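Section 3.1: Structural characterization of target chains.
Under the original work plan, the team committed to producing a structural model for every single-chain target entering the pipeline before any wet-lab resources were allocated. The record below documents one such target. The sequence was received from the expression subgroup and is listed exactly as submitted; it comprises 263 residues.
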Amino acid sequence: MVDAGESKLFMATRDVLIRAFMAGAILAIAVALAVTAAVQTGYPIVGALIFPVGFCILNLLGFDLLTGVFALVPLALFDKRPGATMSGMFKNWGLVAVGNLAGALFSATMIAISLTFAFSAEPSAVGKAFAGAAEARTLGFAEYGAAGWFTVFVKGILCNWMVSIGVVGAMYSKTVGGKVIAMWMPILIFFGLVFEHAVVNMYLFPLGMMMGADITIGNWLFWNEIPVILGNLVGGLLLTGSVLYATHYKPGATKPVPSSANT
């Protein structure tokens, strides 16, 4: 985890942007698949069961989500790796966020075209589902004022607690099958329980607005995206990155510490 965080911190700007763009675009396609499955079957849990396919694809290809770098990049600073700085960390986070957003908007536009015959027809049932979700997850929270905003923040914490566990879990296996299983479980939990993921929402709300959702960009940012990003940061950094660094990382160790030594 520390090595992965260090490599991401010092990655070339071009590579960070490309990998983040592809991650946002692929995750968005998986959201479209999940919503389509939920609409076709009438059971949202079906969408949750298949959504992790997108996360598995992008992670296996080495692409980066903002949620993942929230958990891993700070570890290079914790470990005082040469050249690791706060400014470098914030630069990485900013570049990944920009890349994820660009990728999500790209896929949102492509999916919107496919759902409306290039905006020449009314949205399909799937398109209307996106519009409804966008309204419910902004205006629905706004009805509760500060309590609604805080609820979104907490959902963001819970989301990236699970998502970052998926990132780390994949590191435990050397086989593709093992990695997929390790990623699938926590991603299923987050999506099935409708927690809030910053990059998913970079796609869901723009597409929802294209499909006719009666919300503004301000509604999206204030009542969802901002508290979700903050929550994702807390969940990934504190509940996954910091916890595992504190309990599992042994500086100077020549071999992994047996699990029995922790009992």
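The first helix runs from residue 2 to 9.
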